[in-house]
Amino acid sequence: MKKLFLSFFALVVLVFWLMLNTFVWHDFSNSDKGPQGPYHHVQRRIGSGNSAPCEDCSRITDQVVEHFTHSMKKQEDNLENLRKTITDKVEQHSSDNLGEQDNKVIKLRNNITDKVVKPYTQNLKKQEDNVNKLSNNADKVVEHSSDNLKRQEDNVKSNNADKPAERPPDNLKKQEDNVKSNVGPQGPYQHAPKKIASGASTPCKDCSEQIIDNIMERYNHSWKRQEENVKVLRSLLNSSCSGLTKAIVTQANTPVGSEVTYDGEKRKPYKVPQQVFDVFPKDHPFLNKPLDTCAVIGNGGVLANSSCGERIDSAQFVFRCNLPPVTDGYEKDVGSKTNLVTVNPSIILFKYKNLMERHRPFVESLNVYGDSLVLLPAFSYAFNTPVSLRVLYAIQDFKSPTQPVFLNPDYLRSLNQFWRSQGLKESRLSTGLMMVSLALEVCSRVDLYGFWPFSLHPYGHQPLTNHYYDDVQFKKRVHTMPAEFEQLLKLHNQGVLRVQLGKCPPDTR
C-alpha cells in the first residue's frame, strides 16, 4: 500500500512539472513576439534597417536572465512545497497504518486474555476452592474421630483399671480405622497426633509409631506368590479396564474425528484432528508382548538408603513416575533402568515454563531415560492437551530417542470404577496406582518399591522425607495415599504383588 501511494504522488509531480515547463516556455515565446516583450526594441531596431550599435542589448539580456531566474526560483519553491506535502502525507499514512496495527495487536491480546487466560485462572481458582473445602471437611472428620477415640480410651481405662487390656475393644479398633481412612496423602495419623494432643490433657507421643507397628504386624514378611489370586485379579482388570488395548491412545482405538471425553472434568469433548491423529502410535506398545517381571517405583522417602537399585534394574520392565532423578548417586537405591516414565503437566508448568520458551533443557533432561515410553495425561484436563502436544513436538524436533504416548481417558474412567468396586473411595487415583494397575495386566510378576505414604520408616521409626530426592509436601489432599496403600498391602498379603519395605537383600531370583 505504501509503495502504491508513493508511485501515485511521483506521477502527480511529473505531470505538474511538465505542465509548469510548458506554461513558462509558452509565456517566454509570446513575450518575444509581442510589442511588450523583452525583445521588442531589438526587433524595432533591426526592422528599421539601422546599423547603429545595439545600445539596449545589455539591458535586455539582463532582463531575460532575471526573468528566467525568477521563473526557476518559483519552480523550485513549488517543487519544495510539493515534496513537503508528499512527505507529510506519506508519514501520516504510515503512522495511521502503524496505529491501526497496534490497535489490532492490543485487541488480539485482550481477546486472548479474556477468552483463554481468565477462564483458565478462574477454573484453577474453583478447583483450589473445592480442594480447600474438602481439606477443611477432612480436618473436621479427623478432629471429631480423634475426640471420640480419646473418649473411648478414657472409658476403657476407667472401666478396666484393674485389668490391663491386651488389645483394644473392637469398636475402638473401628475408631482407629476411621481416623486412618480420613487422613491426607502423607500417611494415616501423620497429623492425628497433633489433633489428639490439642484435645487431650497429655500429648499422644507414640500414636504414629503405634499405627506403623500395627501395619507392620499385618505385613507378610515371608511373601509367596499365589498364582490363583494373580489370575483372578488379572481377569477382573482385563474385563473391567482392558489395559492391554485401551490404556494408551492409539490410531486403532482413537480414529480421526473421534470425540475424546476428558476424564478429569466435564467439558466439550476434544475432536481428534488429522495432524494429532498422525502422532498416535499405530498399535498398543504392550499388545502381543508378554512381560515376565516388572518393577513399579513409587518415589517414597523409604527408598533412601534401601540399596534396591540392583534388584530394580534386574526387572524386565521398569515403570517410573513423574520424571524422578535416576543419576547423581541415586542409582544404588533406585536403579537407573527405565522403560516407561510418566510426566505430570505440573512439572512442565513449574520447571520448564510450559515449554513456552526454550525446549532444549527439557529434552536434554529426558536423556537419562533412554528410549523409554514417556506417558502423558493429555486428555485428563483440557489444559493438559496443548502442554502434552508441545512435549511431543519438542521430543520429535530434537530427535530424542524417548517415545511420547498419551493415557487414554476411557481407560482411566474404567480403572477408577474398578477400584471403587474394591472399596477405594477417592476422586482421583494417584499416578502410582495407575501404573501398578497397568503392570498387573501386562506383567506376570509385579514388585513395588517406594510405596510407603507415612512420615516414619517402617523399621526403626526414623523420620522420612516425602520423596527419596526431596521433601516437597503435597499442598492439597487430592489423593488418599493411605487408603491406596491399604489396597496394595491387601494384594501383597494375597500373594498378587510384592511390596518391598526397608533394605533390599541380595537378589537371589
Describe the structure in your own words.
Keywords: Coiled coil, Disulfide bond, Glycoprotein, Glycosyltransferase, Golgi apparatus, Membrane, Signal-anchor, Transferase, Transmembrane, Transmembrane helix. InterPro entries: Glyco_trans_29, Glycosyltr_29_Sialyltrsf, GT29-like_sf. Helices cover 53% and strands 7% of the residues. By secondary structure, the chain is an alpha/beta fold. It has a domain at 224-500: sialyltransferase cstii, chain A (Alpha-Beta Complex), CATH 3.90.1480. The strands form two sheets. A seven-stranded parallel sheet has the order 7-6-5-4-3-8-9, sandwiched between helices. Helix 17 links the parallel strand 8 (443-449) and strand 9.
Give the SSE string: HHHHHHHHEEHEHEHEHHEHEHHEHE
Protein structure class: alpha/beta
Number of helices: 17
Q: Please tell me how large the radius of gyration is.
A: 43 Å
Strand content: 5-15%
Strand runs, count: 9
CATH classification class of the domain at 224-500 = Alpha Beta
Contiguous low-pLDDT stretches (5 residues minimum) are 24-53, 159-205
Mean pLDDT: 78
